Amino acid sequence: MRGIVKRFPGTRALDHAELTVRGGETHCLLGENGAGKSTLMKVLAGSHQPDEGEILIDGERVSLSSPQQGLAAGIAVIYQELDLVPDLTVAQNLLLGRAPTRGPIVRGRRRIELARAAIARVGGDFPVTAKVRDLPIAAQQLTAIAKALTSDARIIVMDEPSATLGEEDLRKVFALVRSLTAEGRSVIYISHRMDEVMEIGDRATVLRDGRTVAVRELAETTAAELVSDMIGESRELVGTVDRPRPEGPPLLEIRSVHREGLIDVQGIEVRAGEVVGLAGLGGAGRTTLLRSLFGDGHAAVSLRLAGAEVRLHSPAAAVRAGLALVPESRKEQGLMLGLSVGRNAGIASLGRPPWLAPRRAGRRASADALSGLGVRHASADQLVGQLSGGNQQKVVLAKWISRGGLRVLLLDEPTRGLDVGAKADLYRQVRKLADEGVAVLLASSELTELTANTDLVWVLYEGRNVACFDPRTTAERDIAHTVITGTSPDSGATP
């Protein structure tokens, strides 16, 4: 892949990125969140078309305008968000579109035989007649890997395959990777775990801000050098919040949030008026933590609110206690795009489904919040789906402000997809709420935003909170080091 450029509205995700993979090697692709890894792989798979640059396979230039063309060229991608159909069986998923037939009839018994062989090759021992949705997540991951192998791909991309696998299953995947490369196939392995990279990889390409910044032979490289490549040498302490840190007893005390094999967080506190950041790589547990606090999960939660023990078994109970969640996906989880701005912003105040409430009730309940947040809209009757991303996010905030009684605000990737101006505007609104006494817990993949807009930054790594930093006194690169490795430099971390 040469000189790959990919632009999206308001951002350049790839800036003349380069990637060269040899036949029969395991090539690790590294970079922080937002470095461009997934976008580069989607270009390789044919899901995105590059604005500039070229792809060559065996020295021949190829044009991949769809995932189907990518598969035809011998490229299979196993995405972290598994590309499986939940209501089909394992066998049906593995041979979807390629099932053995006799005339127009699928040979079901033969399909099961082929599926069993594919699952056995990846070390799976679960029935291929089971529906995918009924399998544990590790078995689903192995199914996705087996599906890629049934296509006879020559280039196989594994995007964070270990995120959902235990040690035993990971050993099986490593053995499979070695057998694939021994056959002359190439594996592109994306991971943030340096121990995996050093064990399984032959070479590594490091992306930073959409650019290729290093290509290293792993036998001649240390994990520390790779981390330095990922972080960069120029990122030092950035401008941070300039107001005094709130004092007094914590308003929110997270004593423990635990779910076996997924999350084990203890001892996070947020005072009234304080903004505490949650940093971490994808899969570190930030979203799981916030959803669990909001009563939307299966974790065991122990928390105190204003010194009193509370049990929040549902989102409704969390709302009654004064908690509010702005979810990662505002379009899927935060808004009803087919309803008006007024009805969306007033939904938490109406006490009934918004489509059953009179329009004027939503307008009346949300008018002050929409005005205070500066939401740009033609009228309260305008469909919320017609607004810009920044204004949609403000409507999600307005929903909670208009209800009143807000004590704790949980924000999950609140600036994702927003332009620079919309981001700055949103953080001003969050700071205003904090100044009014709201406790804010904010998760973001953008470490620079966290260090500039929070009072403290907790780092989550593989489901655990491993260190707490003061962004006023700690260099951003030191926090980034902990985000990537899970270990703290000797510079201001509080275990």
Shape: globular
Specify the number of helices: 17
Give the domain tally.
2
CATH architecture of the largest domain: 3-Layer(aba) Sandwich
What's the quaternary structure here?
A: single chain
CATH fold type of the largest domain: Rossmann fold
Q: Work out the number of β strands.
A: 22
Protein name: Sugar ABC transporter ATP-binding protein
Pfam families: ABC_tran
Keywords: ATP-binding, Nucleotide-binding, Repeat, Transport
InterPro entries: AAA+_ATPase (IPR003593), ABC_carbohydrate_import_ATPase (IPR050107), ABC_transporter-like_ATP-bd (IPR003439), ABC_transporter-like_CS (IPR017871), P-loop_NTPase (IPR027417)
Structural overview:
The chain has 17 helices and 22 strands. It has helices at 37-45, 67-72, 90-94, 108-121, 137-149, 167-182, 194-200, 223-231, 286-293, 315-320, 330-334, 341-350, 359-373, 389-403, 420-435, 447-453, 476-485, and strands spanning 2-8, 11-17, 26-30, 52-57, 60-62, 75-78, 101-102, 105-106, 155-159, 186-190, 203-208, 211-217, 250-259, 263-271, 275-279, 300-305, 308-310, 323-326, 408-412, 439-443, 456-461, 464-469. Helix content is 35%, strand content 24%. It starts with a strand and ends in a 10-residue tail after the last helix. With 495 residues, it is an alpha/beta fold. The chain folds into two domains: 2-231, P-loop containing nucleotide triphosphate hydrolases (Rossmann fold); 250-485, P-loop containing nucleotide triphosphate hydrolases (Rossmann fold), CATH 3.40.50.300. The model is unreliable at 234-239 (pLDDT under 50). It is globular, with a radius of gyration of 24 Å. Helix 4 crosses helix 5, helix 12 (341-350) crosses helix 13 (359-373) and helix 12 packs parallel to helix 14. Residues 1-234, 238-487 form the ABC transporter domain. It holds the Pfam family ABC_tran.
